[in-house]
């Protein structure tokens, strides 16, 4: 497990690899004693509100991680700059980057976006090589040599002739996050090849050591370290192939599956020298119909160009972009369904009277999502006088609101708060 000490929260570290509670990477944190986890995704009765949203407290047994190797990542990171500066640098970055043909194909044929929408949304591609050249071009357009300092995604690394600026993150499709003032305040990367992780149940612990060459059929493989009872072993696992163990009395012991991990990652560099974390606060994304975008001035909120009395809320920037275009409504894309507190003040600023929650249709089979939805309704009932509805549709028509709209359907609305 890789951990990065949090400067602003002494005694806590960000979990860079898999969280022991939700099994996903990023956002979650663990204390120095390794017996409390602040998980961003799995609700619990105890929680704290933070600059990155609601963090749920989960208590571990003292020996829960005793066999897992802990790696502490130290870096001389810096605090994130203000939104105005981030927007200035990120809009310059847009002019210095391109969209690959592979990602253009994905947006056209998988996401069903028009070329006009793609151009207006300003998606870009994070290249695999020569990122330092992009960083140099961006920096050369500013008078201050420290302009990239405090901008998540950029960092310095040592070279033969001194340190130089480069860009962090895995290769993939870059999606900008816009504030209500049309400032680009962050990016997520839809990575081309998500890292491999272990999905484990029962009396087993483990970690992925390194990825290996794929099988002749293209399946990904990895060498993994597993801990079963008091035994440690190294095994090679192939993606999606379950290994299940039963006792002699046919009692379930454990199951382990190698699978692809998180597809969407923040473009951040908090674990690197002179880099910066995306958090405190984590960005939200406000999407408007493309017809509004030419009239949405930087530094101005959009209630003068579109009716903001009803605002939709979904998870993720792609779904928000798609829903805004199809519904002709302003749509917030949350970085996670538990981060709804991030948009409280933006909703008030927009003059919103009615919130429509449009989470994925499989919420009906996910108790954790249902619990989060209940907490979301409770939060807005306590802090606003806005009414709230839940967008519902049959799962067979599509998982996300974007899938539903692609099929030409609209959701039904069910009142949650009068």
UniProtKB/TrEMBL annotation:
Give the domain of life: Bacteria
Q: Which keywords annotate this record? A: Plasmid
Q: What name appears for this protein in its UniProt entry?
A: DUF3854 domain-containing protein
């Amino acid at each position: 497990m890789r951990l990065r000490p949090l400067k602003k929260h002494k005694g806590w570290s960000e979990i860079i690899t898999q969280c022991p509670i939700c099994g996903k990477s990023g956002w979650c944190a663990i204390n120095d004693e390794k017996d409390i986890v602040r998980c961003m995704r799995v609700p619990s009765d105890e929680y704290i509100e933070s600059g990155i949203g609601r963090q749920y407290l989960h208590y571990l047994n003292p020996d829960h991680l005793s066999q897992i190797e802990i790696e502490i990542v130290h870096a001389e990171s810096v605090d994130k700059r203000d939104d105005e500066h981030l927007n200035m640098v990120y809009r310059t970055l847009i002019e210095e980057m391109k969209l690959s043909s592979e990602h253009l194909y994905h947006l056209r044929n998988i996401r069903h976006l028009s070329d006009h929408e793609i151009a207006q949304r300003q998606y870009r591609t994070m290249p695999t090589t020569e990122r330092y050249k992009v960083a140099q071009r961006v920096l050369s357009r500013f008078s201050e040599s420290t302009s990239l300092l405090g901008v998540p995604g950029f960092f310095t690394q040592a070279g033969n002739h001194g340190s130089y600026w480069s860009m962090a993150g895995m290769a993939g499709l870059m999606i900008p996050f816009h504030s209500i003032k049309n400032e680009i305040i962050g990016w997520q990367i839809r990575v081309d090849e998500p890292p491999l992780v272990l999905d484990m149940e029962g009396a087993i612990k483990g970690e992925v050591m390194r990825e290996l060459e794929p099988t002749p059929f293209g399946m990904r493989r990895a060498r993994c370290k597993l801990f079963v009872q008091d035994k440690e072993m190294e095994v090679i696992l192939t993606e999606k192939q379950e290994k299940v163990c039963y006792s002699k009395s046919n009692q379930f012991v454990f199951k382990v599956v190698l699978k692809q991990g998180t597809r969407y990652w923040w473009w951040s560099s908090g674990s690197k020298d002179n880099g910066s974390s995306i958090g405190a606060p984590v960005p939200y994304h406000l999407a408007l119909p493309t017809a509004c975008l030419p009239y949405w001035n930087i530094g101005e909120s959009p209630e003068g160009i579109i009716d903001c009395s009803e605002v939709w809320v979904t998870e993720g920037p792609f779904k928000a972009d798609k829903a805004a275009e199809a519904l002709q409504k302003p749509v917030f894309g949350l970085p996670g369904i538990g981060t709804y507190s991030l948009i409280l003040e933006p909703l008030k600023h927009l003059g919103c009277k009615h919130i429509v929650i449009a989470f994925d249709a499989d919420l009906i089979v996910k108790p954790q999502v249902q619990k989060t939805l209940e907490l979301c309704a409770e939060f807005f009932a306590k802090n606003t006088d806005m009414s709230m509805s839940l967008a519902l549709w049959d799962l067979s028509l599509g998982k996300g609101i974007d899938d539903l709209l692609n099929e030409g359907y609209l959701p039904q609305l069910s009142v949650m708060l009068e």
